[in-house]
């Protein structure tokens, strides 16, 4: 019963992690990509905050439940498909950490633009492009984890 309960929690937290990431990415693209300084300054901080809370909680839950299930199943964390899944989680995590830092900076730049009644800087546009690009390896890594969890290749 414990293993099945952990599996349920693991699946729900993976849904929150992936779904929250996709939702924040789409919403962020709409807001940050609008190039409307007031929108970005106003709606950017809550996007970052919600993404931060959801992602940290879901990722920690993933690590705890996944490690616990591996321990119960007597499966080493660093071998086979599970080792690859953890590596991909690390890739997604690094992309996410960089992305959150970029979002903070973009919000700061848009707030300064609102205060000075100016347009968004070239730095903002560069950061937005990098932030947008980070969605590709992050999403690919998460899809790879789902593949590994379902098919558990050698």
Brief summary of the model shown:
With 154 residues, the protein is mainly α. The chain has helices at residues 2-33, 37-72, 80-116, 122-151. The protein is elongated, with a radius of gyration of 18 Å.
The portion of residues forming beta strands comes to under 5%
Number of helices: 4
**Poorly predicted sequence stretches spanning 5 or more consecutive residues:** none
Cα shape: elongated
**H/E element order:** HHHH
Gyration radius over CA: 18 Å
Terminal residue distance:
27 Å
Oligomer: single chain
On the 0-100 scale, what is the average pLDDT? 96
- Let me know the number of strands: 0
Give the helix level as a range of percent: over 70%
Largest β-sheet summary: none
Class by alpha and beta content: mainly alpha
SSE layout:
Blueprint: H1 2-33, H2 37-72, H3 80-116, H4 122-151
Helix pairs in contact: 1-2, 1-4, 2-3, 3-4
Would you give an account of this structure?
The chain is mainly α. It contains four helices and no strands. α1 runs antiparallel to α2 and α1 runs antiparallel to α4. It starts with a helix and ends with a helix. Keywords: Membrane, Transmembrane, Transmembrane helix. This is DUF2269 domain-containing protein. InterPro entries: DUF2269_transmembrane.
